[in-house]
Specification:
Rossmann fold; 13-stranded mixed sheet; 13 strands
Length: about 350
């Protein structure tokens, strides 16, 4: 078991027993130190919030792990662009090499997988990668004349004055064990949810959400709480991205799934809903940089099972090296995903557009 996976299992109490309990206590002590640092930093930055000179929309979460931030950023960017706004997406470029500021560029190696994916899907949306969001926002305004910036993973950007704070939550496990890192999965204390304007619960399935809704509204009665789900809007071959296939193209076929995501269950559930018969599943760490040998191994094991169709996500697809694309691209299918609100979609977009009239 990888160290990261082991720590995650400890933080979510999946690992039990005396040895785990002995490890959890020092983790708890570390979480107290971490919480104190978060409070100091958030309080200090909160005293001197910076106004950026344009509308600021933050999409973030309070826990580690995948909650659908990127697809929400895409949905907002596309919607605002359709409504005549000039938009920039600001990202820190998680797990990209180096820390130099970069704007939209032809390569995920320089931008990071998620920013590069957004830039490919929305060519007219400026995507800037810089750990300093204030610096990149000012560049977007001064050089490119944007009227709106979207902070990807922005809930912890405490020093920025925001017009709309959107917090994404995993409906099945919204707060973990309610402890801070590293004893739990919370990135900041629960009471800071009072700063949110919109809560979006994803990965809900058949989860009982009434208690989660009640808790969120108790902490923040002015916010709105919505449910959304990931939905497949098509497939494409890795070698022919421009040729969009219907979502049911592989329905009933045996496939191998592979991904490196913060929440792989969401991807597997989507594949199951499409009627794909999962024969093999290969899971890699989040943001994993695939090597040609990785893809070759997946292909060979699939062939041994008597099938060759492989399915992955858009985020994973950008991390597959060119050599592997050329060799295996015809057999790798990319699942295109969008975020759909289960109800009250118009309420969300009304709240979004309302920031331009304040």
């Amino acid at each position: 078991m990888h160290l990261r996976e082991h720590l995650y299992n400890l933080a979510t109490d999946k690992t039990q027993g005396l040895p785990s309990a002995l490890i959890k206590f020092p983790l708890y002590l570390l979480s107290l130190v971490y919480g104190l640092l978060v409070l100091i930093l958030s309080s200090w930055n909160g005293l001197r919030k910076i106004r950026l000179g344009c509308k600021v929309i933050s999409v973030g979460n309070i826990t580690v792990g995948g909650t659908g931030k990127t697809v929400m950023v895409e949905r907002i960017a596309g919607y605002l662009q359709e409504n005549g706004h000039k938009v920039a997406v600001l990202s820190r470029g998680y797990k990209r090499p180096g820390s130099k500021a970069i704007k939209s560029a032809p390569g995920y190696e320089t931008m990071g997988d998620e920013p590069f994916m957004i830039s490919q899907k929305f060519p007219d949306v400026l995507v800037l990668v810089d750990p300093d969001r204030v610096r990149s926002a000012r560049s977007a305004i001064a050089v490119h004349g944007v009227d709106t910036v979207i902070l990807d993973d922005g809930f912890q950007q405490w020093k920025v004055k925001k017009d709309l704070e959107i917090v994404m939550l995993d409906g099945k496990n919204p707060f973990g064990n309610r402890r801070l890192l590293p004893r739990g999965i919370l990135r900041q204390p629960l009471f800071t949810l009072k700063n949110a304007d919109v809560f979006v619960l994803t990965n809900t399935g058949k989860a009982q959400l009434s208690k989660t809704r009640e808790l969120l509204l108790r902490m923040n009665s002015r916010a709105i709480v919505l449910e959304a789900e990931h939905s497949v809007n098509g497939l494409s071959r890795l070698s022919r991205k421009e040729e969009r296939l219907s979502a049911d193209y592989l329905t009933g076929q045996k496939v191998a799934l592979f991904c490196g995501l913060g929440n792989s269950d969401s991807f597997r559930n989507l594949a199951g809903k499409l009627g794909l018969k999962e024969e093999l599943f290969f899971e890699f760490p989040d943001h994993y940089r695939y090597q040609e040998e990785d893809i070759e191994k997946i292909v060979n094991q699939s062939r041994q099972k008597g099938f060759i169709a492989l399915v992955t996500t858009e985020k994973d697809a950008v991390r597959i090296p060119l050599a592997a694309r050329k060799r295996f691209g015809e057999n790798i299918f990319v699942l295109a995903v969008e975020l759909k609100f289960k109800d009250e979609e118009q309420r969300f977009f009304d709240r979004l557009l309302n920031i331009y009239f304040v």
